[in-house]
Amino acid sequence: MRKYSFKWIAVFLIVAAVLLSIIAYIFVGVDHEDNQIDNILIAEMVDSSVRGELSEAITVSRMMSQDSTLRVLLENESDYNVDDMVLKMRNYLNSIQKKFGFTSVYVISDFSKNYYSYVGLNKTIDPENDSFDTWYTIFLQNGKNYELESSTDQVNRDRLTIFVDGRVEDDKGNLLGVSGVGIETEDIRKLLARFEKVYGVRTDYVSEDGLIQMSSRLDAVHSSYVTGITLPDKMEEEYLYNTYGIDGFVITKYIEELGWYLVVRSDTSYGHVTYNYVFFFVEVLILVSLVAILFMASINMKTEPSAGISKMQNIDDLTGLPNRDYFIKIYGEKGNLNTTQYKCIAEFSIDDFDKIKKLPSYERIILSVVRTAKEILGQKGQIIRWNNNSFVVLLEVSIEEADEACRQFCKAVENIGQVTVSVGLTQINLNDNLKKNYYRAIQNLYLVKELGGNNVKRG
Fold this sequence. Notes:
It is built from 12 helices and 16 strands. The chain is an alpha+beta fold.
């Protein structure tokens, strides 16, 4: 009887396994519940990272629109000659630009219609006769306190920029003008491109009519529409997940903070609802080539690890949340929370974290806790990943409402059944610096830990 060498048997078994895998792939597909959960987590991570990049601009724009210094300048504009006003505005805006590095920092006076930037007087806007200035009228008419707008920046060589416009009013609610900051869209494009490369997804942010406002492909912005999908209702709190073909999926959600819809798609032949046989033959060719390469290659050959997402400054790699560096950059180590926007500060951490981090599902557990925190606490304030085990939450609600939300959060995490969390909560005292407010929260957290965890302590 003819004897076959081991290598030919190995080749035969590999080819048979590949063919069986292809058959199973064709008839079964990959629309499993675990894949749906993983894909939604990817969408959450993409959106969290994008909002993390934009959150600083949104925060600074809101602070500018409420800044008493800027209000006084606009209220007394008629008392200064043009040169003096330009100098005062330039000094004010230049200090913000140097601190945060935005590509654009600006103020438009409703009294004079002068467009001030951090480099001086740009121009006098004319919304009635200049189509480029119509955004000013549209923003004022929509009644919003702030809004994101994707447009070209005339001050910055007409580069595509994401502007965060804020409405400036006096103490009586009378309009004084519009202030804001801009981030060059290229920064967001690179972020989306990294996710696209690592996870094989296409991410776009679109307006209500499907027009692309932000994308990894700048040539698609304001020139292409996302079609063939159903955008969810603005009140829908969950991510809407749909499948198409064998391996395709699309995830959509309205992002109220940005005023745009998130659309995350698998980077395959979107729009094809039947099997793509051309793709099948290409796949077979790739797999056969792989078998040949494996046969010829050395068993000691090591593959390079796939490139992960480079660490982004001020953004936590795993959760996409702002990190401690971001928090300190905004407020400083000894700064004051001198804003009435936030009324409470909470710190929560995962109980028995040393045991949890040894589990294979360690990262998924953290993402599950973060997702629950976003659902319950995220709409009431801002969540920051402070370190591996703890998260800080700035809450915009009263101490009573914050306490109720934190207890609901603890219960929700417990019901998941994997871990529990402990929460320390305190009311922000504007007369105390950041460190004192934070340490009151963490002292309450330590007390909960000492009593067994899985609870909330406020004080």
